[in-house]
Each structure stands twice: as C-alpha cells, then as structure tokens.
Amino acid sequence: MLNQVKKFFKEEEGQGMTEYGLILGLIAVGTVAAFTAFGEAIVTKLQSVKTQIFG
Predict the structure, then answer these.
(1) Rounded Cα gap, residues 28 and 34, in angstroms
(2) How many helices (H) and strands (E) does the chain have?
(3) C-alpha dihedral over 20, 23, 29, 35, to 10 degrees?
(4) C-alpha angle 21/25/29, rounded to 5°?
C-alpha cells in the first residue's frame, strides 16, 4: 500500500498540461485586463487612422 502511495506522488503525466492551462489562463486574464484598460484609447486611435486613410 505504501508503495502505491509513493508511486502516486511521483507520477507527473498530467503536470505539463496543467502548466500549459495555467499559462493560457494567465494570458487570457492579461488580455482582458489590457483591453479593459486601453480599449477606449485603441478604438479612438483606429478611428483616427481610418479617418486619415479614407477621408
């Protein structure tokens, strides 16, 4: 029984996918935060560029 418990704690098969999931989640949260903080400025800048290009 003790050997099975030790084997369970040494097993690392799902660890990589969990790390990738956490990284992806952090990127998503950062992206949402950036768009929330700078969204209005980005829209204003794109409208300015559009006006300069198309008149």
Answers:
(1) 10
(2) 2, 0
(3) -100
(4) 175
- Measured CA distances, 11 to 1, 4, 6, 15 (Å): 16, 11, 9, 9
Q: What is the pLDDT of residue 34?
A: 92
- Tens of each residue's pLDDT in the chain, 55 residues: 777 767 766 666 667 888 899 999 999 999 999 999 999 999 999 999 999 999 7
**Would you give the distance in Å from CA 37 to the centre of its chain?**
16
Token representation of residue 20: 């990738």
Q: Cβ neighbours of residue 42 under 8 Å, at least 6 residues apart?
A: 35
